[in-house]
TrEMBL record, chain B:
SMART domains: PBPb (SM00062). Belongs to the bacterial solute-binding protein 3 family. Pfam families: SBP_bac_3. Keywords: Signal, Transport. This is Transporter substrate-binding domain-containing protein. Residues 43-272 form the Solute-binding protein family 3/N-terminal domain. Gene3D superfamilies: Periplasmic binding protein-like II. It comes from the Bacteria. The keyword Signal applies. It comes from Sphingomonas oligophenolica.
Amino acid sequence: MPGDMSHAVAARSSREASRQVDRLVALLYAACLIAASVLAAVYIENLYVRRGIQFGFRFLSEPAAIPIDHPPIAYYAYTDGYARALLVGAINTLKVSLSGIVFATLLGAALGLALLARHPLVSLVARIYIEALRNVPILLQLMIWYALLLHLPARDRPQAPESTFVLSNRGLSVPMLGAELSPEFCALILGLSAYFACYIAEIVRSGVLGVPRGQVEAAHALGLRPFHRATRIILPQALRLIIPPLGNQYANLVKTSSMAVAIGYQDIVSIANATMTQTGQALEAILLIMVVYLTINSAIGIVLFLYERSGSNRAR
Amino acid sequence: MYLDRLRAVTPLLLLVALLAAILGVARTSKHSTDLERIRASGILKCGSHNGIPGFFFFKTNGQPAGLSVDFCRALSIAVFGDVNHVRLVPISMQSRFLALQSGEVDVLLPPTAMSIKRDTSLGLTNVATLVNNGVGFLVSRKLNATSARDLDGRTICVIQGSTMERAIVDYARPFNITIATRPYDNLQLERAAFFSGRCDGIVDDFVALQGDVAAAPDPASYVVLPDNIAKEQDGVMVRSGDASMEKLARWTFYAMVQAEEYGIDQKNVDAIYRSRASPEIRRFLGTEGDFGKALGTARNDWTYQIIRQIGNYGEMFDRSLGKDGLGVDRGKNRLWKDGGMMISEMWQ
């Protein structure tokens, strides 16, 4: 049919045109990339070579003049290298991020369910909490938490061994477990989990509401008990809606943990800053910061992706 | 297919290109030396940590003051001929070297301790020691400590990236004691943490500690321990690679020291300038000879202008750190002929 023929020709020529556009765009990208590389090289030349600094990672093995407060792994300032100091920083970032994620999720889930509660007072309280915390900058909140913790009573003499835990302006200590949490760590965990719980609460709420009403009604009709309705019908379906945006919030939390610098917690940014000050290797230090956050966030993304896939397989 | 992949990295690519373009172009200046570039910009950017009594702080009327501010103005007279080209840039302890390397500031002023590491590995150059200082501890009287040796097992708040962290470790080792450190990158936060009891003491140079006692909520409950655990030379640093800028900064300092040695101060400089002083003094003040021209200062009588507007070294010290400021003893910062360490190379 002549009509079909002209269609086919038109389709082929449009494919041809789009292929040409593709080529053009690819060429533009390549040009951009080359220009960027050249300019970056000029920049490095200016910043480094002219000032007598050599680009490279050799400084990593030099002894680091960075004392670290309560390092999570064995670390000796002035003996161990910058690599180890940065590793301690990365572990501190990981520590605070993971604890923050756990507490923010627990608090966020509770708040999200509270928002859905039938009792108006419960949902009102949850709503007020969320609006209050979500609309105040996290930096300010961290500083307030830290100031509050520093104004706790002083711990003048060693605590009695029988006490289960001691909270003072030197932090939280649990003698029975041999655990010592610094006020900086506590302030960071409190701040991050209180803040990100707000966003997680909204995600949980919308996830639960996103489950089609018919599903709940069908569960009713089948005579499932409220507990089984929640765990077997609502939760698996809500999780599929909750996990992707939850992953975003986790990534946000990890990145926001870099605010640690403001209250003197020695995370990767803090250690990298000190490294820059001492060695002048600013670009390398920033690259390392990027690598750490990228690694942590990619790992979280992969875990959530695997969980989501296994979850959706189960639901089917 | 692969276009999709390319599309995915578009924002990243564009960002990199933009960033590189801005930085690359910004740094590629047509002026070859630092001094020429500073002159062309019309602004001398002086970097110092602000809020440090004696060095760089704001008076109750909002005016910046301190020894670092005074020296910056003196340098501005050398570079531009007057003090109206100064921009004071507050920088953190952590970012100060980066700020100087990147051109955010042109000179780094005290309190910055000078060391061989900083002179050789940062692309920066130590130019002159403005204040000979020592490092010690400020502690709460509750500790009942009379010496730094009593600090075994105590926690001391420090500024991260400072030379003081090292000083503590080096001090503690021979006595076989452990002094824990709690680092902050922000001076105000560090001080606030100390005064609310987060640590048992702070470590800093004696000049700064003197200022802290004065500013403490309850000065009587704190004491500066007598031990001097390390020397510290607070000085001026510039970017390496421009000898003319280094010379200008160094001789600005010498001019102020030499003026004190000659007995020339803010009060008598006009009279001496007009009088028939000795040829040596006339050459120093720039009414004869060409020291200024040889150095590349904006005007040949730059020393006269500095003394008239800022004063000699002793006046600068007394105003901010000494008897009219923090009340710190002049000590090693007296002139060499008075038993101190302040000395100028010869003006001939």
